[in-house]
């Protein structure tokens, strides 16, 4: 019953330096932001300094943050990511089902005074 008394073996210094070298590898951020999502709701959010973009499926908040910094030269204050699952609907007139594709979108909130020009 000596579960709590054993010490873990320390990792060699070469393994620790290899982990830090992997963390410094540059990522390709040009494919993270697919396109801006322009809707009525996103237009209202633009007035509050928030922008909506469609992002690729595996993108994290950190990927989106780094992509916005690199592409638009602004610093995001907050990023929220929303997943919309694909759904199937039934067309009554044609008696068949249609699948609407899902998407992953990011709401990017900027500091006061920063802007992203989408035009």
Q: What do these coordinates show?
A:
The chain has 119 residues and is of the alpha+beta class. It has a domain at 28-110: RRM (RNA recognition motif) domain (Alpha-Beta Plaits, 2-Layer Sandwich). It is built from three helices and six strands. The chain has helices at 13-23, 40-47, 61-72, and strands spanning 33-36, 50-55, 76-84, 87-91, 96-100, 103-110. A four-stranded antiparallel sheet has the order 1-2-6-3, with helices on both faces. Strand 4 and strand 5 (96-100) form a beta hairpin. 11% of the residues are buried.
In short:
With 119 residues, this protein is of the alpha+beta class. The chain contains 3 helices and 6 strands, in the order H-E-H-E-H-E-E-E-E. The chain is 26% helix and 31% strand.
């Amino acid at each position: 019953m000596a579960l709590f008394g054993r010490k873990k073996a320390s990792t060699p210094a070469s393994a620790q330096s290899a982990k830090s070298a992997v963390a410094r590898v540059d990522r390709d951020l040009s494919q993270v932001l697919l396109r801006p999502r322009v809707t009525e709701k996103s237009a209202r959010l633009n007035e509050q300094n928030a922008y909506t973009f469609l992002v690729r499926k595996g993108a994290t908040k950190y990927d989106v943050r780094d992509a916005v910094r690199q592409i638009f030269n602004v610093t995001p204050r907050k990023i929220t990511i929303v997943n919309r699952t694909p759904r199937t609907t039934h067309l009554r007139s044609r008696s068949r089902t249609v699948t609407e594709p899902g998407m992953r979108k990011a709401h990017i909130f900027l500091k006061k005074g920063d802007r992203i020009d989408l035009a």
